[in-house]
Amino acid sequence: MLKELREIVQQVTASSDLNQAMGELVRQTRSAMRVDCCSIYLRQEHEQNYLLAATDGLAAKAVGRARIPLGEGIVGLIGEKEELINLADAQLHPKFKYLPEAREDAFKSFLGAPIIHQRKTLGVLVVQQKQVRLFEEGEESFLVTLASQLATVIAHAEAKGNLRSPNWHGILRGLAGSPGVAIGRAWVWRPRVELSKVKERKADNAAVQHERLDKVLVQVEDELNGMALRFKESQASESVAVFEVYQYILKDPVFIGLIREQIERGWIAGSAVKRVCEKQIAQFSVMSDPYLRERAADIRDLGQRLLTRLIHEDEGLLTLAEPIILVADEISATLIAEIPRSKLKGIVSAKGSINSHAAILARAMGIPAVMGIDHSFELLEDRTLIVDGYNGDLLVEPVPSVLREYRRLIVQEEQMDELFATVRNESSVTLDGVTVSLLLNAGLSADTDIAMNDTADGVGLFRTEIPFMMRDRFPSEQEQVTSYRRVMASYVGKPVCMRTLDVGGDKQLPYFPIVEENPFLGWRGIRLTLDHPEIFLVQLKAMLRASQGLDNLSIMLPMVTSLDEVRVARRMLDRAWREVSAETADQQGIIRYPSLGVMIEVPSLLYLLPDLAPLVDFWSVGTNDLTQYLLAVDRNNGRVAGIYDTLHPAVLRALQQIIDAARRYAKPVSICGELAGDPIGVLVLLAMGYRRFSMNNSNLMRIKYIVRQSRCDELQKLLQEALSYQNTSMFKGLFGRYLEERGLGGLLRGGR
């Protein structure tokens, strides 16, 4: 039956319509297993029953009508026990429930398998026969295999809303891109020009194509400058830096040079833009690092903007009659900028993540956003939506009672924003007098936080990968100096911690390909740079030169697993400092020797802390990767992302071990993973003794407010109580109540 099984699975998974797929499955399964009936029952959570969704053998008119309450009948028993049931005569079973509308009087033998996806029962797949007999073991395996395949199809259809009619109202699940709640009508945007749909053509006169490109570059630069100016004049002035990354790309001589090279090869300007952009998009898109993977969207947006100006006239700002919820397959920062702020209430995107520029800009502007919604967006056009940016939910055509509740939450949200604004210029000190440092995680203009931010105490993590990835060669020492100097000069008198180049198999350089089966465990981070001292030394020298006269540089090593790596890196830093100091001896201002630290993100370092302490000046905990490696979970893999938990008992014990060792050996220690920007996470870390937190710009104000409303002595007692719980949800609940008691429950959900 293996051939039949493959054919059924292929047809079901290839179908774009769930009802059609289920109909085909029951028909082919009945034929392949030579049974008299095959049926699918889907679990209806809101109605608390199983609905007959497809059948070949029962009465056709019963489809969509026949229902079995949860826990009743043999179907309900299968769903409850979550296991297969094989009966020679189902009518003799005490749980048997007769469905008169289905006309199943003639059927005796019964075999049913649960349809389960990620621990959730979605329905039951059943075959029946008129004769009394037990089904064979091979038939059981066949049905279980089909049920597992059907589970994926049903789960995907549920996520897209395809189980519903065009008039469906309900909830679609996505990713929380920007916190907040918005209510409004959907406005679906489609790009006028798409890179993938532009046909490539040759030209006879390269000079004319260069002139066309020059004209368009000026037009797009003016647009970007205009967008930046509008944001500079608004309350989202710190968002200007998002557009600097576009300007950086647009002025990058390497990027523009590649386009001109294509023109010289005979391509028209539009085709040259398409060819270069698609190549760079492909390079960024395959990277496993979500932060860097999102840079593909920046290249695509800029490429489509150039192509639009090459093909169409500039239409200027979008005109809208009323405020809208912006819905699109992929939303760029520049698209957000083109919509008047007074007309943009919320954002819904099929593509993109919390690291996309759209999400970053939405957070800076205070616009609720949900990313990763897999749905047929044409069905959403002009429908009433609620964007729940706390939970990543999109509510379609909500009922009046739900609308009223969310409107109440919006009012409470506005009150919370006013609360956070009151501490902008205040110090980060707890109610019992403990001082806390709040730092920024940053990249080259990519986190809206390179410009001076008075609410931050410095930069706790500056990613140096971007200037390496935007070229077709390694950047020169002077190019790196320019990039690093700009960051350090923005934070005079405040620390700036720069992480050395962290690339490898999962973060590819376009001109330095690395092919590995498992890049997360491969040649990356400090392993790569130590193997290439000519790259590492140039970067260290560039950092040192950039720090001259500012004296605010510290350097951090990524992906460290052994003490030898630290010793070699220290010797190379010594050499770089000596050489740069000698070369700049006659210049004004000496170069201070920087602090050297390591990222604790590989579990092996947990067992080397006593030996590591004399070799470095500080530690910084990368909770994202540390959690990923401790739990063996790829958080970007949807199948296992649900068990990625930064508050897992093993992670908590590791964090406690690190802070205890930091106290013992007098080493400054900070947290630079997402846990530092999480409301519950920061309370747990404060209770453990952490006092330095580095986070994205969007989290700074709310974390500062939480710090100022908390007492470390209370949190320490709370942690001791919470650690006695075996259940993670109970652990989180205890700290959640601490927030609620201070009127901050809205940080965990909409409203206060």
TrEMBL record:
It holds the Pfam family PEP-utilizers_C. Its cofactor is Mg(2+). It is found in: Cytoplasm. Its EC number is 2.7.3.9. GO terms for biological process: phosphoenolpyruvate-dependent sugar phosphotransferase system. SUPFAM superfamilies: Enzyme I of the PEP:sugar phosphotransferase system HPr-binding (sub)domain (SSF47831), GAF domain-like (SSF55781), Phosphoenolpyruvate/pyruvate domain (SSF51621), Phosphohistidine domain (SSF52009). This is phosphoenolpyruvate--protein phosphotransferase. The lineage of its organism: Bacteria, Pseudomonadati, Pseudomonadota, Gammaproteobacteria, Aeromonadales.
